Amino acid sequence: MAVYNSKDGLTVIDDRIGHHSFNPLQRSKGRNALQFASYITGKTIKDEILGKTYGRKKDKGKVIETGIVGPKNLNTNTKELWSEAEKANTRKNSVVAFESVYSLPAELSLERQKALAVGMCLYIRDTYGGACEFAIHEPDSKALNESQKNIHIHIMETSNTVKSGRAGEPIFGKKIRELQNGNRKCRLKDRREEWAKRVNSELKKAGSNRRIDHRSFIERVKSGDAPNLIASTHENGRKLRDYERAMSMSV
């Protein structure tokens, strides 16, 4: 992570919210879409196939807002969407869904934070043809993931294309090829760039001088867009921490 002033000396570049995780929910690794959906939404959900009931622990922080984004005329709920995702993927090692965590800028109102969440879900839907569910969470100081120590959003997305049935029910189609195996790394770069554009647009509208950069710190140093703090690989971590500490006191 790094916080520093850009070339103009006015804009503060903060990449702590520029990066986000993107992980598969794979059945062979014990991941279950209904269980994870229950965790991010705070809803109690019964898995009719396994006979288990899932819920979110009270000490995990408050869920502020949730929502489902999918194809036109989709009329579904958390349990139905992710139950159908489990049914559509029958292999023991199936990737049933994907999940991402995004930190949100604290200076934005809840309305604008929700707009970012919905906007990113619409981007994912329009790019891959699936469906998403998002949940905005309060900061979790006990979290191991840095992104979750700020107000943040979880986004679950289907690994299959989704269409709406006559009654608005989700109908699952083929696997989304762009998200399979070797394609994920390339797609993650595209997503980070898209997220940075959306966040920076909202920060500008809010009158903030803070911006995020989706590129790695080393990429920015090479292009001349970040201070060269890297004397050696061994020194890198310490120098970045010292610089961050100094900048955080001046922002």
Task: Please tell me about this protein's structure.
The longest helix has 23 residues, at 183-205. The two termini are 15 Å apart. The chain has 251 residues and is α+β, with helices and mostly antiparallel strands. The strands form four sheets. The chain has a five-stranded antiparallel beta sheet, sandwiched between helices. Helix 1 (33-41) runs antiparallel to helix 2 (78-88). It has six helices and twelve strands.
Key structural traits:
disordered C terminus; 12 strands; 251 residues; 6 helices; 35% helix
How would you summarize what this structure contains?
The protein has helices spanning 33-41, 78-88, 110-128, 183-205, 217-223, 233-250, and strands at residues 3-5, 12-14, 21-26, 45-47, 52-54, 63-69, 95-103, 132-137, 152-158, 160-164, 170-175, 210-211.
